[in-house]
Amino acid sequence: MKNLSSLNKHVDVALAERSYRIEIGPEASQILAAMLQSLKAKGRRVTVIADAGLLSAQADFFSQHGVDSGSVISVPQGEASKSIEQFARLLSELAQRALGRDSVLLAAGGGVCGDLAGFVAASYLRGIDFYQIPTTLLAMVDSSVGGKTGINLPEGKNLVGAFWQPKGVFILPALLETLPAREFAAGVAEVIKYGMLCDIALFEKLEQLPHLAADDERWCEIIARCCELKATIVSADERETAGSGGRALLNLGHTFAHAIEQVSGYGTYLHGEAVAIGLSLATRMAIKNDNLDPAIQARVDSLLQRYHLPIQLSAPLDTDSLISAMCKDKKNLAGKLRLISMQSLGQAYVTDQISEPLIRILWQDAGAA
Ligand SMILES: NC(=O)c1ccc[n+]([C@@H]2O[C@H](COP(=O)([O-])OP(=O)(O)OC[C@H]3O[C@@H](n4cnc5c(N)ncnc54)[C@H](O)[C@@H]3O)[C@@H](O)[C@H]2O)c1
Fold it and tell me: Is the CB of residue 175 below 6 angstroms from any atom belonging to ligand 1?
């Protein structure tokens, strides 16, 4: 019989008194159950804020972990739930349940539910403990780690929020088996991003492996590596204040992606799909601006396409609108566009030296009008 224990990993996020552990693998399920048991024994009330899509796909998950259905609050699936209305509804719900300062929230779902529930935890009674149970690949490798929580305003994405670190993260890759294929692929874009920005060995490993299905055990190790990389970056720059590098590097391809999402209308592309186009564009930019080896373009594009991710716009978008969306990016300083480029594959850096004519050419290469 196969030894499953080799699939279990953990990663520590070192943030002084806010440090926590990420448990990854089949055993994370037992560790989670034991933790819930111990909270109960201490008289601490646990409330789960869970994504509705997860609840229907994994109906027995919480009862199997000793959580009764009355302690689970469902959040409608989709980005629209990262709203002031859902935030207010959840806060009222917690207050009506008379949850005290020693109560604990579990955020179970993708990045939408994690960001929303995390912000509720940061705000309720000026902050209560919370744990993340990420259930999409994107949330496992990215959004559940690092303490960025928040919601959207009609004026823009993630405009309100708080840095509020979880007390722990439980990653059960088996939950990916029910994730829709398109959502799974979108998460792979963020995995590829880590390789490109700071880990050439991860990139090469993904290149050497065939397409891995969501139920492939090799994801445990890959997810753990991504968490390790994010934990290192977050530990060095918790609040994204580093003058160069730091958390901003995690935005490789993302300024292009956010522009695509905004101009095409949220929902046309999944975030990870827009990131995939952004990664291909960032590579093109680095070849033209930083003398990156031109052969890297085919390597990046073919890895993205192996996971059925787009590298070009599916329909033309207006170049001026895309550039104007990029100019509103939160990373920009003193009115100058700041982008993430690569000196070499696996080595990203922040630059404000990309000219507008070059950006225009890049967009047109990607199929913009
Ligand atoms: N906080 C951060 O650092 C950070 C980083 C990256 C992204 N984000 C945020 O993450 C969000 C996107 O997250 P996402 O891509 O996880 O999308 P998501 O949360 O919308 O989840 C995607 C879909 O998968 C479904 N789902 C989730 N788990 C499932 C499972 N195991 N089985 C079946 N269905 C399941 C959900 O119902 C949903 O329809 C965005 O709002 C983005 O801003 C935050």
Answer: yes
- Per the structure, how many domains does the chain have? 2
Q: CB of 179 closer than 6 A to ligand 1?
A: yes
Q: Are residues 248 and 194 in the same domain?
A: yes
Q: Which of 132, 138, 219 to mutate to test the pocket of ligand 1 (most atoms within 8 A of CB)?
A: 138
Give one DSSP letter per residue of 115-163, joined into a string.
Answer: HHHHHHHHHGGG--EEEEEE-SHHIIIIITSS-EEEEEETTEEEEEEEE
CB neighbour class for 64 (10 Å; exposed up to 12, middle 13-18, buried from 19): exposed
Exposed, middle or buried: residue 41 (CB in 10 Å: 0-12, 13-18, 19+)? exposed
158 lines ligand 1 (CB under 6 A): yes
Q: Which domain holds residue 323?
A: 187-203+238-365
The predicted-structure confidence for 284-334, as pLDDT tens digits, reads as follows 999 999 999 999 999 999 999 999 999 999 999 999 999 999 998 777 777
221 in any annotated domain? no
Which residue among 13, 149, 183 is best mutated to probe the pocket of ligand 1, counting the most ligand atoms within 8 A of its Cβ?
Answer: 183
Residue 2 confidence class, pLDDT cut points 50, 70, 90: low
Which residue has a Cα nearest atom 2 of ligand 1?
Answer: 143
| Test site for ligand 1: of 140, 143, 219, most ligand atoms within 8 A of the Cβ | 143
CA 351, 352, 355, 359 torsion: positive or negative?
Answer: positive
Whether 130 and 276 map to the same domain: the answer is: no
Atom of ligand 1 nearest to the CA of 118: 1
64 located within any domain: yes
pLDDT digits (tens, 9 = 90+) for 255-287: 999 999 999 987 899 999 999 999 999 999 999
Verify that 97 and 141 share a domain, yes or no. yes
Domain containing 158 — which CATH number? 3.40.50.1970
Residues 6+ apart with CB under 8 A from 96: none
Catalytic residue list: 126, 148, 190, 230, 240, 247, 251, 254, 258, 271
Q: Is 148 in the pocket of ligand 1 (CB under 6 A)?
A: yes
Domain for residue 156, yes or no? yes
